[in-house]
Structure formats: structure tokens, C-alpha cells
Amino acid sequence: MGITFWIASLPLFSFLLAGFGSLFNVPSFKKRSHYFGLIAVGISLILSFKVLLSVLGGEVLRETWFNWVVSGALSANFGGFVDSLTAVMLVVVNFISFLVHLYSIGYMEGDPGYDRFFAYLGLFTFSMLTLVLSPNFLQLFFGWEAVGLSSYLLIGFWYKRKRAADAAIKAFLMNRVGDFLFILGIVAVFWLFGSLDFDGVFSQVSKVPGKDLSIIALLLLGGAVGKSAQFPLHTWLADAMEGPTPISALIHAATMVAAGVFMIARCWPIYDGSSVLPVVGVIGVITAFGAATIGLTQFDIKRILAYSTLSQLGYMFAALGSGAYVFAMFHLFTHAFFKALLFLGSGSVIHALEGEQDIRKMGGLYKYMKITTITFVIGALALVGIPPLAGFFSKDKIIMASFSNGHKLWWLFLTLGALLTALYMGRLIFMVFFGEERFGERERRHLHESPPVMTIPLIVLAVPSVLAGFLEGWFTDFLKRSVPNHLLELPHGLELTLALITVSLALLGLVISSLFYLWKKISPQIITENPLIRPLYLVVYNKYYFDEIYYFLFVKGVGFTFGRLLSFIDKYVIDGIVNALAYITKFTGEFLRFSQTGLVNAYVLYFLFGVLIIVAIIWLV
Amino acid sequence: MVSVLLLLPLLGALVVALCKSEERVKWIALFTTGLTLILSLFLLLKFDPSKVGFQFVDYGSWLPSFSIKYKVGIDGLSLVMVIMTTLLTFVAVPSAWNYISKRRRLFYSLLLLLETAMIGVFVSLDLLLFYIFWEAMLIPMSLIIGIWGGERRIYSALKFFIYTFAGSIFLLVGLVVLVIYYSNLTGTFTFDFTQLSSLKLPLELQKWLFWAFFIAFAVKVPVFPFHTWLPDAHVEAPTPGSVILAGVLLKMGTYGFLRFSLPLFPQAYKMYAPIIFALGVVAIVYTALVALVQEDVKKIVAYSSVSHMGFVMIGLFSLTVQGIEGAIFQMLSHGLVSGALFFVVGIIYERLHSREVSRMGGLASLAPKLATLAMLFTMANVGLPGTSSFIGEFLTILGAFKASWVVASLMALGVIFGAAYMLYMYRNVFFLEPKVLLFKDLDLRELLSLSLLAFLVIWWGFNPEFIMKFIHAYVHGLLGGV
Fold first, then answer.
1. What does the alpha-carbon distance between residue B408 and residue B397 come to, in Å, rounded to a whole number?
2. Residue B481: what pLDDT?
3. In a 3-state reduction of DSSP, which class is residue A431?
């Protein structure tokens, strides 16, 4: 079994214990359900560090837990495969998960589903750990789907609300659209390579023609686009905000949306051998820029952050697309910290305002919650990419890589995206924490800083949000042992200029947003009410109408209208024929029954007719 | 030993029929089915999985003037089918516990008779014996639907009986042609399957017989477009009837394809595979969409069965190791999952006296145990990895891909629709605000029966080899001969 087995399965035990307590109403379990999670994930985190250390020492772990599917030439095990890529992911996932557990003790206090929540957290962590540990495509798919299940359960956690229940279904189904391609990709891998093990597949990549690799890469990409909520399968992520806020932190930082990026990095030999990378990049750029524009127009604090996640994942995809796998992973790494921080911070705000999420009803919160404000601002600045905070290093590298690898148009949009990021984050900070207070008297009386169990995770997360950028050199070298980083060197002067452009745009964005929302020199209405811009604004505000189009085409169209039509056909045509046959038989029988008169002279008559006919036939032939 | 397995439920049926107390019969039935289950597990233990061919063969003269023998035995395929039968009959008893409140003696006698007939189908090695069991099954099942069913029970029972019976006539004709052909060729008149299966039939005859057998089996599976008796039968059948119907009876058809069509008519089987693929794909996608708009919970699960049997059919005709092994595993897994889902629906019906989705809602907050187990079975039906259904679905898709990537893609598309109707159903039944004030959660009997199925779904999801090891040799032998 080995150490990796325990890393993955400890959170599963937490799920089972807390779930048991929840299901059978065990009072001694109920109040203590968070201990299961804290202890399990805590130990798992320590073990992850231990594994990280041994991988740092040059080891690569290959453990087999148990045999899973054997059929013909197919054989797949459950096991743990840890190279530097997985080692980093293990630490990040467990670290974020541990803090989310801690934070949830405060956030979920008093919720009737308290223990159920911790059970799901355990399941979620287990799923993601199994995913990153996979030594083969089948276990990868297991983790992939298990993550989907956990997110479904958590998004629909408050299942009595129709919106939560619907958002959960939406997340699951949109992921399934991606998975439909993903599973075909896995099947294709098996028939092309004769194996599903990463080692076996990747070692044979050079023998397979590029066209076949491209098909596989595209199919796998479908899965990644679904899970990482990239254009055009991005619409579920914003709705996923119906789940409790700590879950958003977990989904957005480490456990779910990161899976797509991880998968592509893991399968880099296939992508390198294919011609699909530009597609990955274009999807990333579209998402990075498009989601940022939407983020600028939303009013729900969590939705703004959700669109920012979409956008940042777009940056990661852009990095993958330009071949800079390590930079994609580095942005995933830094982003995990500050995005978890931002979500937990927004949770702290929502908690203080008793569920209010509309930033138009906030403002001036700095006075009431200093720790939340300071840590949130740190997270925001890290996201915006202000040096020397973490996001600056990772995002700047991605923007530069797209330039140096020859994708000038990507570079343009990613740089403009940096400006938009600063604009929407500036808007968010100024509207929530500064300026006039726009909430009611009742809220003000309840307003308070969150308890330490919630603020400590914020403080802990603020540290890597500031410092993680300095790990760049170490991180890059470490990851290069597992994944390559294709990068054409730029002249030093040009590199500096590019960085300056990005940073100054980010600063400009903050200044502009402060003019709008802090100093109120310009009213945003000038833009939104302008007759020329308003139609465009409405399009962006309505998220480019993707939800409406998808709903019309797929849910209403293919699903329900077409389904009703088929149901009608089934009932009246197919079954109609069956029943018609039965009735014909019955009527024929009833008709012929009249011949059975019971009168002897009638039968004699039939007999004579019969004889006549036979004679006639014989005579004619 | 196989004969004991066959006789045990029959004996139980007799005891039940003669028992004086209406109350005690369910315990007798539970005891008998339990004992049969244990005996079948014993068989599992004694079975040598490395051998190809039949084991535990019992043999006896029956109607010597027609060369009809009593001959039973099991190979890997029969073994897992028998296990599924004994298991689901054992679970059907607690599902009937309160649901069947009138004429219990008759009900449990019929259920036990049905078990004998079902086991008989899977273990018969004489074609006429097989045919007798095949038809004998219809009688208790139609009576169960017709006596304990819902409002339109007579219509449904009749439809079920006539439809499947009409299909089976073709099987009988086919069998007779086969036997006569063999006797003309060799001079021996026999119904012995092992002897007949050594025949190399000319292609022209293979074609005709393939379609004759096809009609009988396709109605039973059911293959699209012969499926319309199934929703009617399920909706009207009492819970235990549905459990057996979906769990075991549907597999008789796919069992027939595997046991007879493939070894007897290999060339025709291969030739017509594209037609089966087309029907299978239509079944998967079409019935999934139909399921999406149904208002009756039982209809949703019934259509879902048709959809899932599409995976089995395609797997069987993919003629790859993975496809066939996946199909067999899917037969088993679908038995567990659909049996469990019908059990769940029955539990809800007992409490709400309705099957309309619109009358339900919010049950998760009232009955968390039921909701949790139902979630597990829902996810299993969706084919989530970690459940037994995933193994079956994945392997059949894998096998189909080898034959045709278009077919595999359309099957995978079915995976999306499958998730859609199951999740909407789950939402409408268990999520949202409760529409009723009181709803009793599972009692111990229900909890234990469902937990048993849940345990198996998960266990076989992680350790499919427990079952698969019994069919590796069988499938290998089967494909070696093609």
C-alpha cells in the first residue's frame, strides 16, 4: 500500500466517519465531525511534506495499492505515482483543504448540515488526492469523476433551494459533456498504446503518428475544458457559487478546476507531439479576457471572484498552449493561495453581513473588520500582479512566455487582461471595504470581525500570497524534472519592458477604479448609461448570453422538447404498432367467429365451396 | 449440486403453499431464498475458474423416446447469472414484505417457482429443457403483475405475456430446425446443447436461425424497438416484480445471445453486428431522452433499463474480450442497480401512494438514510467510477471503440443523457422544499436490504475481478472459437 495510499485515504476515513455520524444521528460524532477532517487532512498534509522531501531528494515514488480492472490486454491498478508535479499538488491540496476545514468550523457553525458538510469536504479532498496521485488514465478518470461528484454534492449542499439544486446539476452535466470526450480519449489511448499506464503510454509517444496524438490530445482537452471551466464549458462555475463559501475556496484554489491544468501538464508528451497546443492557448486567451470583462460588470462578490478564477485559469491554459507547462503550474501554485484567501475573505464578509453578497449593499467595512480587509487587499493585489506579491511573478511569466514563443496576439489580450483584472479587483475592494457604508442599521449592529478560527486561515494564506513568488527559481527547477518548459529566451531589456508594461497597466487599472469607486470623480453610469456603450454593456453583464443560449438549445431544445417528441412517438407510434397488431389479430378472430354458426347445413355449404375451389384449382393448373 | 439449487425453491414453494399461516410464509420465503443464495455461493467457491466448459453437470434420462434429457451444469457465464438470480430473489422478499399484503401464500409460492424457472434457464444444457424453463418463467411473472399490480395490471400482464410469448415461438421453431438439421446430418436426434454447439452450420441457415432466435431474445432484453412492453409492465408490477423483472428477466435475452446465437451462428452474428450496433445506439440515446420527460418515477427507471441494456447489446456484438466481459459485468451490475432503484421507488410508493414526480420533493431532509442510499444508486446508474456500473460501461465502450469509433462515441454521448435524467429525477424527488410533512425514513429491514446491494455495487466497483475472474476463461474460450 505505502505512504501514498494513506495520503489519499485518510480524508476518505474522515468522510466515512463524519458521514456515519450525520446519517445515524450519533450525537457524539455530530459536534466533533470537524476533528475527523482536521486530523485526517492534517496527517495527510504532514505525509505529503514527507513525500515532497523524498522527491526533492531525487526519488520518484511508484506504489501499487491494489488491482482494479483486468480484461484482456487491459490492466489497471489503483496506485500512487509521485514525481515533482504530483508532490507539489499534494502539498497544495492538503494545505488549502486543511485551512478550509479550519475556517469552516466558524463559517458553518449552527448549520443543520454541519457534519454532512465536513463529510463532503473529506470526500472532496480524497477525490482530488487520488486524481493527482494516479499512475494511469483510469485512476485519473476515477478521481476526475469523484471530484465531480463531490462538487455536485457541495454545490447542492443547501438542496432545499432550487437554485442550489439546479446549479449542482448544471455543474455535473457540463462536466459530463467534457467527460464524454475525455473517456473517448482514454479509450483511444488504450487502443493506440495498448496500455493505460502513464509510463507505458508516454514512453511510446514517439512511435505514434502526430495525427493520432492530436486526436487524443483534443479529446482529453475536452475533459480539461469541462473541469477547468474554460470557454465554451465555463458557465457552470459562476453558478457553483450557490454552495457554501468555503467550498468555493476549495473548488477554485486547489481541488477541482486545477485538475484540467494538472492533467494537461501530466500528459505533456502527448500534447508536445500533437498540434493541439495552439487550440489550448486560444481557449485560454478567450477565457482569460472574456471572463475578465464579465467580472467587471457583476455585483455579487462571489461571482466577481468566480469570473476572476475563470480568467486566471485562462492564463494557465494560455501558458500550457505556449508550451510553458511549468509556468502554468507555477501560476496554479500561487493562485491557489491568493484565490483561497480571497474566497475565504469574501466568506468572512458575507458571514459578517449575514448572507449579503451584493457589493452595492456593502462599503466601508474596513472600520469593522481590519484583519479581513488587510488580508483581502493583500490577496487582491497578489491577483492583480503588483510586485513583489506572488501573482506578479507567475502571471508576468505567462504573459512573457506567450510573447517570446511568438504568440503576439495572445500577448496583447493577456496584457489587456491584466488591466481588466486590476479594474475589477479595484472596483471590488473599493466598493466593499472603503467608501460610504451602504448597508442598513440592522446589519451595522451585527457587524463584527470573524472569529479567530476564520481569521487565522486568512492570515496564514496571506503569507504565501506575498512570498510564494520568490520560490520561482526553486519551483521551476523542481518541476522541470517532470515537465518541460519550452521557452525562447528574450533579450533582457525586452523582458524588462514587457514586465513594466504589465505592471504599469495593473497600476493604471487600480488608479482608474479608484477614480470611479473610491474618489467618485467619475460615475460608472457615464459608461453603463451611454447609449452607444449600453448594448455592449448589457451583453457583457448578461455573460454574453451563454446561459440563455445553452438553455434554449440543449435543456429546452434537445432535452425536453425533443424528449417529449420521442416520448410521443414511443407511446403512439412504436407501441401503437404493437397494439395495432394485437387488435388486428383480435378483430380477425372476432370476424371469423361468425363463420362458426353451429348450423350443420352451413358447414355443408362451406364444405361444398371448398371442394369447388380445390377442383377449380386443379382443373386450372 | 445444481439440481439441488433448482429444486430448493420449488420445495420452498410447496411448503409455502401448504403453510397454514399467511403471516409466516414470508419468513419461509426469506429462509428458502437465503438458503438458495448460500448454496449458490457455495457453488461459487467450488467452481474452478480456470477451466473452460461446464462443471457440476447433472444428467438424467427424461423423455427417451424423443431423446430429451434432463441435463444441467454451469460454466462461468451461468455461474454469475445464477448468483445474480439467487441474490435478487433474496432481496425481492424483503421488498415484498409490506408491499404484498393480500394472498401472500400465493405470492411467495409464485416467487419461489419463478426462482426455479430462472435458475433453470441459466443452467439447462438440454435445449428443450431450456425452452420449458424459458416459457415457464412467464407464468408466475404474469400472475405477479396481474394479481398484485396497479390499476392497469391486467392490460400490462397480458401484454407482457403475449409479447414475449409471441417472440419465443420463433425460438421454438428455430430450435426444432436446428435439431432436425443435426439429426439429418449425423443421424442422432438430440437436444443436447454441447452436441449441437459443435455444429458448423451453413451461412444461409445461420442467417435464418439467427433472426428466429433474435426475435425471441430481442423482445426479452428488450432491444429497441421491441421495448414498449417493459415500461407498462414495470409501472404496473409490484415492487418485487419490478426487482426481478429488471434484475433478472431482462438478462435472459442477452444471456440467450451469448449462449446460443454467438456459438451456433458465429458468421451471421458477426455479419449482423452493425444492425445490432445501430439498434443499441438508438436504444441508449432515444430511451434516455424519453426517460428525461417522464412523470412517473417507475417509468424513468424502466426506460433507463432499456438504455443500459443497449450498452450490453453493443458490448456483446463488439466481439472483443473487453466488450463481452464488460457486457456480462454490466448485466450483473445493472441487476443490482436497477433492482435497488425499483426497491427505492417501491419504498417511496408505499409511503406516498404515488409515483408521480410532481407529488414528491424534499425527501432528503425527511429521510436522509433513504436519500443517501438513493444517491449512491443514482450515481451508480449514471456510471460513476467506483461503482460496478462504471466497469461495465467503460469496458463496453472500450470494446465498441475497437469495432467502430462512431458507435463508441454515441454510447459515450448516452452517458451525458443518462446523467441528465437521473439527476433531474433525484432533484425532483429528494431535493427542493418538502411537499409532504411526514415521511418515515428506512426501517431496519429496508436499510439492511438496500445496504447489501449498495455494498455490492461499491465492492464490485473497486474489485470487479471478484466476478470477472469467473468469466475470463469462458470469454477466452468463446472468442477463441470465433
1. 5
2. 52
3. helix
